[in-house]
Amino acid sequence: VQIRLNNGVEVTLHAPASITLVDARSVQLTEGRLVARVPEAAIGFRVQTPNTDVVDLGTEFGVSVEENGSTEIHVAEGVVVA
Questions:
Q1: 52-69 tens-digit pLDDT
Q2: pLDDT tens for residues 13-48?
Q3: Residue 20 CB neighbour total at 10 angstroms
Q4: Torsions phi, psi of 22, nearest 5?
Q5: Residue 56, exposed/middle/buried by CB under 10 A (0-12, 13-18, 19+)?
Q6: Which end of the chain has the least Cβ crowding within 10 Å, N or C?
Q7: pLDDT for the residue numbered 20
Q8: What is the CA 25 to chain-centroid distance, rounded?
C-alpha cells in the first residue's frame, strides 16, 4: 500500500503492518515495515515506533518494527536522526 501525504511524503507499507497517521508530519508504526520518501519541503517528517523516534532530514529510509518492539532503520539516501 502506498500513501502520499499533502506535504509530498510518500509512505509505502509492506503488509502486515500496523500504522497510525498522527498528522502530515508524523506517523506511528507499531509493527511491520515501511519505506518513506521525503522531499526537501517535508524535512522533519517523523516515524514513531514503540522504542524509537526517527526524524528525517530529507531522504529515503525504511523502518521495520518486530512483534517485540525492536526497531531497525535503513537509510537509502540522505540522513535521519534516531
A1: 999 999 889 999 999 888
A2: 998 999 999 998 999 999 999 999 999 999 999 999
A3: 10
A4: -80, -50
A5: buried
A6: N
A7: 96
A8: 10
Residue type, 35: V
User: What are 40's three cell numbers?
Assistant: 526537501
Q: Which of 81, 66, 4, 68 is nearest to 35 (CA)?
A: 4
Which three cell numbers, joined as nine digits, stand for 80?
Answer: 535521519
Query: What value does the CA radius of gyration of the chain take, rounded to a whole number of Å?
Result: 11
The SS3 call for residue 24 is coil
Q: Please give the model's pTM, rounded to 2 decimal places.
A: 0.92
Collapsing DSSP states into helix, strand and coil, what is residue 62?
Answer: strand
Q: Which 3 state secondary structure label does DSSP give 8?
A: coil
Provide the 8-state DSSP code for 79: -
Cα–Cα distance list, 44 to 16, 26, 28, 38, 81 (Å): 26, 9, 14, 9, 10
